[in-house]
Design goal:
Blueprint: H1 2-22, E1 28-40, E2 43-54, E3 61-63, E4 66-74, E5 77-79, E6 83-90, E7 95-98, E8 105-107, E9 112-122, E10 129-141, E11 144-154, H2 160-163, E12 165-170, E13 175-181, H3 191-199, E14 208-212, H4 213-219, E15 223-225, H5 233-238, H6 251-261, H7 263-278, H8 284-289, H9 291-294, E16 309-311, H10 317-328, E17 331-337, E18 343-348, H11 354-360, E19 375-380
Helix pairs in contact: 1-7, 3-10, 6-7
Length: about 375
């Protein structure tokens, strides 16, 4: 009887996963390509390049509306400036200029369009100022009509070395940490190029470069506006069983995990996790659901302006460590460290440094997100 019940629950779970998978969804995604900042007289001119791709194999999808809004932010304050905007659409055949009215566009299966946004505003940028660019758009297709908001950060990338600050922190009798204060980073920033720009001229032999998992994930564009998440009844039920401070204790955080690994795996891991918790073994749920489940940061979990987004864990951490090591000729690691002394090494260019880092990083030399020191160099003290 017991095994029949287990089998029945498993079949129901698999059917739920199947239902979630076959429900029509929009497969339109917008990707940041690059932006060019030009400083001319008393104005900053910005040219932003985006690509919208239809990942569907068969279905064409329409965009009935699309608009851009800008938040000009100085540290924690919003500023008001006169702004001129111009939007150009390139469908691969002709370029069209957007004149205050968005004409519905059809994107065929497995095709894309390019969008260019030109922004002109009075001299604005310095190290502590950035633009939070919001793309508000609608998708229309077999899934119905849905609204999306995708946000992108624009900063002054032209003078990063002079705006860089280095904070020396003693970690032990042998090692210091050089915490590198940077601009607030975004998905337009290539991780390898950004790290190279900030570090190449200051690294020393035997340094170990550390980058936080959240800033790396942000540079990879792995953050989601909560308004884009369609929470179903299952995410709203499952999130009830987690500690209130967990990122899985909200329907949106749980829905992202369901989208990633499926309802069945989460449900079974939850049952097994409860069983082991009864006998005093904690953390079994996260072991069964994988590292992705423990790296989700819910809204308010990171620095502005990402405090309204859910940030996922980074991808390809190992290959990024290897690339950094090859380019800078030092060892590198991607880590998740908190102020309570918790240290998690997600990936490193060499396992030989992991044990040393587990000890040295307990002081969390990068500090919290508001300190804007996502990159840290672990360095031997001069004798």
């Amino acid at each position: 009887m017991f095994f029949k019940l287990i089998f029945f629950i498993l079949i129901i779970s698999l059917l739920i996963d199947l239902a979630i998978k076959i429900v029509p969804k929009s497969k339109l995604n917008i990707y940041p390509i690059k932006y060019i900042l030009k400083k001319r007289n008393n104005f900053d001119e910005i040219e932003c390049y985006f690509e919208i791709r239809n990942l569907s194999k068969k279905k064409e999808i329409m965009i009935p509306n699309l608009s851009f809004n800008l938040d000009l932010i100085s540290e924690r304050n919003f500023e008001d400036f006169q702004i001129k905007k111009e939007i150009i659409i390139d469908d691969g055949i002709i370029k069209k200029k957007y004149n205050n009215y968005w004409q519905t566009i059809i994107i065929k299966a497995r095709s894309n369009i390019k969008i260019y946004l030109k922004i002109k505003l009075k001299n604005y940028f310095d190290r502590n100022k950035f633009i939070w660019l919001k793309v508000n758009w609608e998708n229309y297709g077999d899934f119905g009509l849905i609204s999306k908001q995708n946000c992108f950060l624009l900063n002054d990338y032209t003078d990063r070395k002079s705006s860089r600050e280095l904070n020396i922190i003693s970690l032990s009798n042998e090692y210091d940490a050089v915490a590198i204060k940077t601009n607030i980073l975004g998905s337009f920033d290539n991780p390898l190029n950004t790290i190279k720009t900030y570090c190449q001229d200051i690294i020393k032999q035997d340094d170990i470069l550390i980058i936080g998992e959240t800033p790396l994930a942000i540079m990879q564009g792995r953050y989601v506006d909560s308004s884009n998440i369609n929470c179903n009844i299952f995410s709203k039920i499952l999130c009830y069983f987690f500690h209130p401070t967990s990122s899985l204790a909200t329907a949106c955080g749980m829905q992202l995990l369901i989208n990633k690994i499926g309802f069945t795996r989460i449900f079974i891991a939850l049952l097994i996790g409860f069983s082991f918790k009864i006998i005093g073994i904690k953390g079994m749920f996260y072991r069964l659901t994988g590292v992705e489940s423990s790296l989700i940061d819910d809204i308010s979990g990171t620095t502005i302006p990402y405090d309204k987004s859910i940030v996922l864990g980074p991808k390809n951490s190992k290959s990024i460590c290897n690339e950094i090591s090859k380019v800078l000729n030092i060892e590198a690691a991607v880590v998740d460290v908190n102020d309570l002394g918790g240290v998690k090494i997600l990936a490193s260019s060499s396992k030989n440094i992991n044990k040393r880092l587990m000890t040295l990083l307990k002081k969390n030399p990068a500090g919290n997100d508001d300190q804007k020191t996502p990159i840290v160099l672990i360095r031997k003290k001069d004798i």
